[in-house]
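May I ask for a sample protein chain and its fold as tokens?
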Amino acid sequence: MTLFSSMRVALMLLLIPVAASAAPLDDYYLSKFGERAQLARALSTVVGLEAEPAERCRTGLYRSLKRDFKTLEPATQKALAKYVSRPTLENVRSYASPGGHFNIHYATTGADTPVLTDTTPANGTPDWVERVAQVFEDVYASEVTTKGYRPPPVSRYDVYLRDLRADLAYGLTSDDGAFSSGVSVGSYIEIDKAFTDSIFTVNGLYTADQMLQITAAHEYNHAIQFGYNYYFDLWYGEVTSTWMEDEVYDSVNQLYSYLHNYLPLASTISLNRGLYQSSEYGRWIFNRHLAESHGAGMVKAAWERLATMQPSGGADIPMAPVLDSVLSTSYGSSLGADFLAFAKKIYTRGWTSHANETARIPTYTVAASYSSYPVNVSSLPGPSVTLPRYTFAFYRFVPSPVITTFNVMINKTSGIQTALFRKANGVVSEIAPDTGGNAYSVIGFNALDRTTDEVVLLIANTTDVDNHQANFSTDGSTLAVNDPGVAAPAGGGGGSGGGCFIATAAYGSYLHPKVAELRAFRDRHLLTNAPGRLFVLLYYRLSPPIAGVIAQHEWMKGGVRVLMVPVVLSVEHPAWALGVVLLLVGGRAWLVQRRKPALIRVPR
């Protein structure tokens, strides 16, 4: 066997396990629900690693599993059956809350038994169970009675106390599959039995009672969402439930810890991106902006509008158009205008509510800072940016001893809006642009005068279309820009929420990790340049009918997954893939060189 043939065989042997492990959706759900993760967690405990932080909730995961359950293999369905039905507790007892709105179900034996502060209660109900019931009644009074949200379509709501430590979750809300009318559906809640573990109290920063309070506020808001419309966009469901925690229990303030998952990455994570690295919990801050600008009723109005809508093809209803419609018709604004105002507020820190909590909100994150002038195409980092939908970036300019008046010119595509701020002696003011809106001037920029602390340029993509561009300079030079030729795929919550039709058909769901990796590659490396956008545009035009055929035949799905292995490997391990290509090319060249006939020298 030649060297080149051996290399090809070795490469195929490396690919076989990858192809074999690419079962449609089974691996994804098995790993997510811990059936294959328990050993890893046990090992991490043995070697003394820190426990993983608990998730805010698993509502989206449970809803997705129920939707995809019939497509899973029988063995997978058997392993995960307990997650698509109501929990079964050992020697279960139930306690009706004082206000009559809730039934609290708890175990009296087994792992789910709550920690009892009174082991022999006079009335037969443990104190902690009574406390849970009272907290949920308080949440009902706040969210339904005071704030006016519509309660879930059930006569008495069921809450189950479970040991959720192994799930690393505070709680979850799951639909019961019984639609009361139209798109409204009932649901039930599961929360941790005690919240005493350090993963819930964040190593003692919060009490178990505080975590109970905000979890109840969060999960019951999900129950309200299911009652409005089962097909709610998951990212906004988490945004609203997390925001609601602080509206009901203002003194706990645990939700501020989630902001670091979003604000430092706001130039890459779209406001309406789907569930992504827990950033959806940090995006609650946008609802605070809406409430401050238009009143808290604006958020409720969005959910009430959603309640009047029907899904298309069984897909979740994108929330960005709903927000834009409500803002336009009822508040004289738009989602784009409010997103720009929100981005400005991140820099100016002009928050008007929860005044004693403003310091908990992170300050703006700089995309690039300049202190050497002029700033132009030769500067490092380059003064240009390509932004996904509903994202923003800040650029900082430090006063110079040789410049008195600071001028900046911007060239941008149609979806970009900008703002310029000057901070002088700690006071921020917004600078008006010139009549064309593409240039700004700041007098008093000389560092020796010490009248200006910094100048900051805000660039925001205020549309639902990915990859709008902008570049800027301080010497009047700009680069050409081109409006993006491909609109962001609709549905699924934005950002990287769809469009990989063939991969989705092959792997069974857009939730599959392999599909997510391909979407991320598309967003980062294809939609950011003209040739890549052209390729994506052609793919969007040609692939849907092909994907439709693949989705109907299991043997086609398996074959396409095998064919896609090199692509997936290249996306996951670009350096490794490049090394393999170079090795193969080098090996081929070596073989060609060996096969060349030897030159015969003829003596003269």
About this structure: The chain has 19 helices and 14 strands. The mean pLDDT is 84. Residues 51-227 form one domain. The CA atoms of residues 94 and 105 lie 4 Å apart.
